[in-house]
Design brief:
Elements (H helix, E strand, L loop, with lengths): L5 E7 L3 E8 L2 E2 L5 E4 L6 H9 L8 E6 L3 E2 L2 E3 L6 E3 H8 L3 E6 H7 L9 E5 L10 E6 L3 E9 L2 E3 L15 H14 L10 H15 L7 H9 L4 H25 L5 E4 L1 H6 L8 H5 L14 E4 L4 H14 L1
Parallel strand pairs: 1-5, 5-9, 11-14, 14-15
Antiparallel strand pairs: 1-2, 2-3, 2-4, 6-7, 7-8, 10-15, 11-12, 12-13
Helix pairs in contact: 1-2, 3-10, 5-7, 6-7
Length: 320
């Protein structure tokens, strides 16, 4: 039965914002509109533009944003926008308002995912319904969020995992780390595991070879897809190895026996290549804990509306 809640949900990225209405936790796909952030002064301006075309005032609103959130206030990582609950309420008319990091919203969406949007990367082992899970997002940026079930409630603590130190284990990776440090400052996971991070790995390989033939992420990925660029293949292998290692490090911190869910545009582009480029070997490269790593299933999520439906699911739990 559909929950009677009518909610406004927004997925706020550094470049675009998507806004939609929901019937309970079901996103009304016909109501989704995309706004270019550059065309608006701030998020309330986006929300007012959306509401100007609606005939209903939402009961609640939730914003999932690409940036850290604390006490209902968030700041975009790649755009100088501040998001506050009170401003969202004023722009929408909603009486209940939540602001989440976008990976928190992805975590709240896990119980709404259907089998057709999941691809198994590693099978893992079955676990109880209340086992911890982990969402790892790789796109314009990188982040991760653990997902816990406490009774009938979902708890997704905020995180900024993309900015922890870059793990480097062999001489090649140490050279990459030093190169990033010299060019861009202290290296974090996001300096490799993101769209621009993939470009940096390729640029490092060009520098090592004395080449100036730099490419953007799309062109590098095309070279991987059609097998036309050996350097792109090498960059992709380094990227996948780092992704496997970073994901396994996070798995040992959170013990997500209920599964690890990779999401985000860059993760989706790499999905066909993860197995052949060594994701599994890097994920299980944990010495005497290698066998332990076989317990964690890993999935790729291909659901463009997950942050929106997760926002709606969070509001339903919030209201009760």
């Amino acid at each position: 039965m559909t929950h009677p809640l009518t909610a406004l949900v927004a997925d706020l990225g550094g470049t675009n914002t998507r806004v939609a209405l929901t019937d309970g936790d079901i996103v009304r796909t016909d109501s989704i509109k995309r706004f270019r952030n550059a065309d608006h002064a701030d998020l309330p301006a986006v929300l007012r533009a959306y509401m100007a075309e609606q005939t209903v005032i939402p009961d609640a609103a939730c914003v999932a944003m690409a940036g850290p959130v604390r006490d209902g206030v968030g700041e975009l990582t790649n755009l100088n926008w501040l998001v506050e609950r009170e401003a969202v309420a004023a722009a929408t008319g909603a009486t209940t308002v939540a602001v989440l990091n976008d990976l928190q919203a992805q975590g709240h969406a896990l119980d709404r995912l259907t089998p057709d949007v999941l691809t198994t990367i590693l099978p893992g082992q079955s676990a109880g319904t209340h086992a911890a899970r982990l969402v790892v997002g790789v796109g314009t940026g990188m982040n991760a969020a653990a997902v816990y079930r406490l009774g009938d409630r979902t708890l997704v603590p905020p995180s900024e995992a993309g900015h922890v130190s870059l793990p480097a284990q062999d001489t090649d990776e140490l050279r990459l780390l030093d190169w990033i440090a010299a060019k861009h400052g202290t290296p974090g996971l996001e300096d490799v595991l993101s769209g621009r991070g993939f470009e940096r790995v390729y640029a490092w390989l060009c520098d090592e070879a004395g080449s100036t033939d730099l490419l953007d992420a799309g062109a590098i990925m095309q070279g991987v897809n059609d097998g036309s660029n050996a350097r792109a293949e090498e960059a992709a292998r380094m990227f996948v190895r780092m992704l496997g290692r970073a994901t396994s490090n996070l798995a040992l911190v959170h013990l997500p026996f209920g599964g690890i869910y990779l999401c985000g545009g860059v993760a989706r582009h790499f999905s066909p290549h993860l197995k052949r480029l060594g994701f599994e070997a890097a994920f299980k490269d944990k010495g005497r804990f290698a066998d332990f790593m076989h317990q964690f299933p890993v999935y790729l999520v291909d659901d463009d509306y997950a942050a929106l439906s997760g926002s709606a699911a969070h509001l339903i739990e919030l209201i009760g």
